[in-house]
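user:
I keep going back and forth on a fold encoding question. Separate attempts, laid side by side, tell us more than any discussion would. Would you put together a sequence-and-structure record for a protein of your own picking? Write it directly below this note and I will take it from there.

assistant:
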Amino acid sequence: NIFKPYPQAPIRETLEIHKESFIIIYSAELVANTRKGYIFLVNALEHLKSLPHKKQLVIVTFGKNAQSKAQSLAYHSLSLGYIEKESELALVYSMADVTVIPSLEDNLPNVALESLACGTPVVGFDVGGIPDMVEHKINGYLAQLGDYKGIAEGICWVMEQKRTGSKIRLKCRETALRRYALPLQAQKYRDLYKKILNL
């Protein structure tokens, strides 16, 4: 109920981001954690310069150490620091066009699920629990592990979805509701416990 799509325009206006910008989100509990793959985002953004696109990019980061890291990015960047309130997180996800998760290993990252619930597609590596949530070229884009060029291509693919007016944002929200709604998860746990206990 908190992580859901909110109108983009007023959020962007509040943060003084041009309404036509293409916004990329990167977040991690600790941005400097090498396991979260920040260097692959940096390399992907560098590679993005060589790919055909006409969008004005804005990179929005949040998490610990986000501000110091954001300064090294190749595009205009905005650091929101550490965000504690879920209601504020939902607004940030909603205003973005894509969330990039270049983790080298991860279980079922909340960032991906929260982003999808807010209608924002996810680009990440085909590793861990990420492909359990992200369906390639349906609600996001999966690149091979360590392939930063694939991450850049995924970002361009999402740009194209926005340009053509595809329903990808609706597909993202639908994924979250169909697979991860709390009542559904509770029922799955209940069914599992019954099976284990042979009830």
